[in-house]
Design goal:
The chain is an alpha+beta fold. Helices cover about 25% and strands about 15% of the residues. It has 3 helices and 5 strands; from the N terminus they run E-E-E-H-H-E-E-H. It starts with 5 loop residues before the first strand and ends with a helix.
């Protein structure tokens, strides 16, 4: 099966990736973190490690997370350890 991709660069709507011409566009903008919760990237910067290390800790269950849809957020008290 062959899929055709094209990108809509309309500055008023943000960058969108369309997978098929009749399909609803999928936004590529990252969701903003929920109030008080940190992203994996922010925790990695605070700890001065790679983002992959933080995600590995999450996968191992050694770092408590909150899932907001498909996004993973880390409470500040969990990242203080």
């Amino acid at each position: 099966m062959r899929l055709s991709f094209f990108v809509n660069l309309n500055p008023l709507q943000g960058t969108q990736i369309m997978t098929r011409k009749n399909q609803t566009p999928r936004r590529t903008n990252n969701p903003q973190p929920a109030e008080g919760l940190l992203t994996a990237r922010q925790v990695a910067e605070n700890w001065q490690v790679s983002e992959r290390t933080v995600r590995r800790l999450i996968a191992d269950g050694r770092l408590r997370v909150v899932r907001v849809g498909r996004a993973v957020r880390i409470p500040p008290e969990a990242s203080a350890t």
